[in-house]
Write a structure and sequence with these properties.
Blueprint lengths: L1 H26 L10 E5 L5 H10 L6 H10 L9 E5 L5 H10 L5 E4 L6 H10 L5 H8 L2 H6 L15 E4 L5 H15 L1 H4 L10 H14 L6 H13 L7 H6 L10 H4 L23 H8 L8 E4 L5 E4 L2 H11 L17
Antiparallel strand pairs: 1-2, 3-4, 5-6
Length: 344
C-alpha cells in the first residue's frame, strides 16, 4: 500500500510540474529581451500559427508552443480579432491573449476617402472620436507647422494623402497631420516632381488642377478627358468655369448653387478668373494627379453631366449646347460649360 501511495504521489508530481510550468509560462512569464513599444497587425484570415509567429518576431512572448497550446485549450484559437495592437510595455502571455480575444487593439482604423477637404477630414476624425475637429483645424492652419512642412505660402489643402490610417484616440492632432502629410510626400510628391516635359504647370498648379478633376468626376476613364478640357481652356485663357471651385470659395454652401454665387468675387470663382484658383480645393487621388499631368490628346472644351455619373464632351459651343439641351433641358443655354454634379 505504501508503495502504491508513493507511486501515485510520484505520478501526481510528474503531472503537476509540467502543468505548473505551462501555467507559469502562459500566465506570468514575461520576455526579458523585448523592445517597446511593439506592435503587431492581425489580418483577416490569419491562423493562430501566423499570430504566434508575429508575437514571437516582436519578442512579445517567449514560448510560441506553450502560447499556442494554451490558446487551444482555452478555446481562444478561433476568437482572436483582427486589428493593429500596440504594446507600450511587457505583458504576460495571458494578458496578450486576452487583448487579442477581446479585440482591444489600441489603434483605430480610419479611411480618408479621396476628394475630402481638410475641413471634411477634421469632421470625419471628430465623428470617430480620433481627433477634435477644432483642434485639428487650428493645427492645420498653424504657421509653424506649415513652415515645417514647407507649405507656409501654400496651405495644407491638397497635401494630405487619402488612405487608410491607424490612430489612437490620444494621438495629437499635429501628429495625425504630420502622418498624412508624410504619406503625401512619399507617394504623391515623386509623381509631381517628375512631370511630363510638355506640362508647363508647377507642381502646386498640377495638384490644384488634380483637385478640381477629383471633384468633377469619379470615373477613372474620364479623368484624362476632364483634364484635357481644363488644359485646353488654360491654353486659350478661357475661364475653367468649374462649379466645385466656386463652392469651395463659399463660406457656407446649402447645396443650391445660384447665378449670384457664380458672380461672387472670390479667388476660387473660376467663372470670373481665367486661371487656376490659388490652391487645391480638396485632397485628390493619385489617379487625378496622373490625369492632371497627362491629359488626353483631345480638342474638347466643354462637358456636361449625363445624369448617370458620366459626362458628354464637346469641342464646339454648338455641340455643347445641343448636349445641354438633351441632358440638362431645365438649364438656360449659355456659352459656358454646364456644371457637373458636385460630389460631396
Amino acid at each position: 500500500m505504501k508503495k502504491l501511495r508513493l507511486l501515485l504521489l510520484a505520478t501526481l508530481v510528474c503531472t503537476a510540474v509540467p502543468a505548473g510550468i505551462l501555467v507559469y509560462y502562459v500566465l506570468f512569464a514575461v520576455p526579458i529581451d523585448g523592445v517597446y513599444p511593439a506592435q503587431i497587425r492581425v489580418e483577416q484570415g490569419d491562423s493562430l500559427a501566423a499570430v504566434v509567429r508575429k508575437l514571437r518576431d516582436q519578442k512579445l512572448i517567449s514560448n510560441g508552443f506553450l502560447f499556442s497550446l494554451w490558446a487551444r485549450l482555452s478555446g481562444a484559437e478561433k476568437k482572436i480579432h483582427q486589428g493593429l495592437y500596440q504594446f507600450e510595455s511587457s505583458a504576460a502571455p495571458r494578458e496578450i491573449l486576452d487583448r487579442l480575444v477581446s479585440g482591444r487593439g489600441t489603434f483605430q482604423t480610419v479611411t480618408i476617402p479621396e476628394g475630402l477637404t481638410v475641413k471634411e477630414i477634421a469632421t470625419l476624425l471628430d465623428q470617430m472620436q480620433i481627433a477634435d475637429k477644432e483642434n485639428f483645424l487650428a493645427e492645420a492652419a498653424d504657421p509653424s507647422l506649415l513652415t515645417t512642412l514647407g507649405l507656409h505660402e501654400k496651405g495644407l489643402e491638397g497635401y494630405l494623402f487619402p488612405s487608410t490610417y491607424h490612430f489612437t484616440p490620444s494621438t495629437p492632432e499635429k501628429d495625425i497631420i504630420l502622418t498624412m502629410a508624410e504619406q503625401f510626400r512619399k507617394i504623391s510628391l515623386p509623381l509631381l516632381n517628375h512631370p511630363d516635359g510638355a506640362n508647363s504647370l508647377t507642381s502646386h498648379e498640377v495638384l490644384t488642377l488634380a483637385s478640381i478633376i477629383e471633384k468633377e468626376t469619379g470615373i477613372d476613364a474620364e479623368r484624362p478627358l476632364v483634364s484635357a478640357v481644363f488644359h485646353n481652356r488654360l491654353k486659350r485663357q478661357m475661364p475653367l468655369q468649374s462649379d466645385p471651385t466656386v463652392i469651395y470659395g463659399m463660406k457656407d454652401f446649402t447645396g443650391n448653387l445660384t447665378r449670384k454665387h457664380l458672380n461672387d468675387p472670390t479667388p476660387y470663382n473660376t467663372y470670373r478668373i481665367a486661371a487656376l484658383p490659388p490652391g487645391p480645393i480638396c485632397n485628390p487621388s493619385l489617379a487625378s494627379i496622373r490625369a492632371a499631368l497627362q491629359p488626353a490628346l483631345v480638342p474638347y472644351l466643354y462637358f456636361v453631366s449625363k445624369n448617370d455619373g458620366t459626362h458628354l464632351f464637346s469641342e464646339t459651343i454648338e455641340e455643347h449646347n445641343r448636349a445641354v439641351k438633351a441632358f440638362q433641358p431645365v438649364r438656360e443655354l449659355s456659352s459656358r460649360r454646364a456644371k457637373s454634379p458636385a460630389r460631396h
